[in-house]
Specification:
- By secondary structure, this protein is α/β, with parallel strands linked by helices.
- The protein has ten helices and 20 strands.
- The strands form four sheets. Strands 4, 5, 6, 7, 14, 15, 16, 17 and 18 form a nine-stranded mixed beta sheet that branches.
- β10 and β11 form a beta hairpin.
- The longest helix has 27 residues.
- It is globular and about 60 Å long.
- It binds flavin-adenine dinucleotide.
- Flavin-adenine dinucleotide binds next to α1, β14, β18 and α10.
- The site of flavin-adenine dinucleotide has 43 residues, from α1, β14, β18 and α10.
Length: 417
């Protein structure tokens, strides 16, 4: 293949990095992805697989602080900030508090919606391409609630979603049951977001990797990026555990490691890893569940995928540690029969965990940086990083080709802190 545009080095083989590779390859770049692991398991594999234009509210939203403080007192709760004197965590917390207000939500809702809708559209296109079948189902997601308080909040949110042009339907108990006729649901009601969808992340990641490798993209595994060689305002080489790589353009898509990578360039990308767990469950007989669902009081995501159901949840914010907190997993397990009385699970054997890359204002980092003329950042997708992945990739490819970004990304600037 003729690469007329030069060589792009992408750091990280998660959904952000691989999507950037996919669109850059299509645009005629020579692409090389550097990945410190073996590419078989990062945050983009074990997540809930939801495509979520419904998530137009950044994590830093009003009310989340009070809720978070209440939840912190319960060891089985879905949200937890690990108390610590860690300087990055304190800095992150102060920035988070500054953004947890209505003005911030309103200012950014349209841009988040547009990036998510764009990502969803790109998933439709990708699923139609030969070699891809990642169990995409664009049939909406159910937000289920059991309490009046959450019902009230959710109906308000659905009204805001409708104002943003998203198709939502508020359903009573019969309505939600009618959408899932083969699975008994115990809920006061729910909101169905027709704009959302689900997919099976491992297949997506494996198929994307295969596509890239068979078309000449170099993916170097077990290759950890440790620094950069600079000349003036350009990065000339990426320094790794396996030698140096020449670069005309560099894209950093390192997931929760963005701050560490950025610090090698004296850039600040504040971010906390938000640990979450997931596990698969094979129900008796067939998987009758048709839609993805969020159990709102429990903050648990339920996704039918690959003839099984994936349950995921918890947000443990704090410096990464690879411990599995059994009480929190138990919290997920116990919540399931409360909403689905016929699904009784025991504590899972095989628990996956991953780190959502969470910027303090709940907005991604996407675009070029001011300081280095050939550096772009794609990441910080937080709870919606899978959903946004292709939109990250296409945006980066457009910017590197000198085109305008496909959606408004000024608020996502990597220079904003
Ligand atoms: C329980 C759970 C459920 C979730 N559910 C959803 C969902 O339903 N929908 C949704 O949209 N999002 C969801 N998410 C969030 C989503 O999974 C992430 O936001 C997304 O996968 C992040 O992708 P990424 O490419 O930015 O990072 P990653 O997938 O983490 O990839 C980053 C890669 O960079 C590599 N890397 C890091 N440092 C270096 C270095 N120095 N050198 C070389 N390589 C390096 C890492 O090894 C890694 O492979 C969920 C997350 C969790 C934990």
């Amino acid at each position: 293949m003729l690469h007329q545009k030069g060589k792009v080095i992408i750091v990280g083989a998660g959904i952000a990095g691989l999507s950037a590779a996919y669109y850059l390859l299509k645009d005629g770049w020579e692409v090389c992805v550097l990945e410190k692991g073996d590419g078989s398991n990062n945050c983009s594999y074990g997540n809930a697989g939801m495509i979520v234009p419904s998530h137009f509210t950044p994590l830093a939203a009003p009310g989340i602080v009070a809720k978070g403080l209440k939840w912190m007192l319960n060891s089985k709760s879905p949200f937890y900030i690990r108390p610590s004197l860690n300087v990055s965590l304190i800095d992150w917390g102060l920035k988070f508090l500054r953004h947890a207000n209505e003005k911030h939500v309103q200012r950014n809702a349209e841009a988040i919606r547009d990036l998510n809708l764009f990502g969803s559209h790109l998933y439709d296109e990708l699923a139609a391409e030969e070699g891809f079948d990642f169990e995409l189902r664009q049939n909406g997601i159910l937000m289920l609630y059991q309490t009046k308080a959450v019902q009230h909040e959710e109906i308000e949110l659905a009204a805001a979603a409708r104002q943003l042009g998203l198709h939502t339907e508020v359903l009573d108990q019969h309505g939600v049951q009618a959408l899932e006729p083969e699975l008994k649901i115990n809920a006061l009601g729910g909101v169905w977001y027709a704009c959302d969808g689900i997919l099976y992340p491992p297949k997506l990641m494996q198929q994307l990797t295969r596509y890239l490798l068979t078309r000449g993209v170099e993916i170097c595994y077990q290759t950890e990026v440790s620094g950069f060689r600079i000349s003036g305002s350009r990065i000339t080489e990426v320094i790794t555990s396996k030698g140096n790589y020449h670069a005309d353009e560099v894209v950093i898509a390192g997931g929760a490691a963005l701050p560490k990578l950025a610090s090698r360039l004296q850039l600040k990308l504040p971010l906390m890893p938000g640990k979450g767990y997931s596990f698969m469950h094979k129900p008796q007989g067939t998987t009758a569940m048709k839609h993805g669902a969020l159990l709102l009081e429990a903050r648990v995501a339920v996704t039918p995928m690959h003839q099984q159901i994936r349950f995921s949840g918890t947000m443990e914010l704090g410096p990464a540690n690879d411990r599995i907190y059994k009480n929190r997993v138990q919290g997920i397990v116990e919540s399931i029969p409360r909403y689905f009385p016929d699904l009784k699970l025991s504590y899972p054997h095989d628990i996956w965990f991953g780190y959502r890359p969470c910027p303090p204002d709940g907005l991604p980092y996407l675009g070029r940086t001011r300081q280095y003329h050939n550096l772009s950042i794609a990441g910080g997708g937080g709870m919606m990083g899978l959903s946004l992945g292709p939109a990250f990739g296409k945006t980066i490819a457009d910017l590197l080709s000198g085109k305008p970004a496909p959606t408004a990304i000024a608020g996502f600037s990597p220079d904003r802190f």
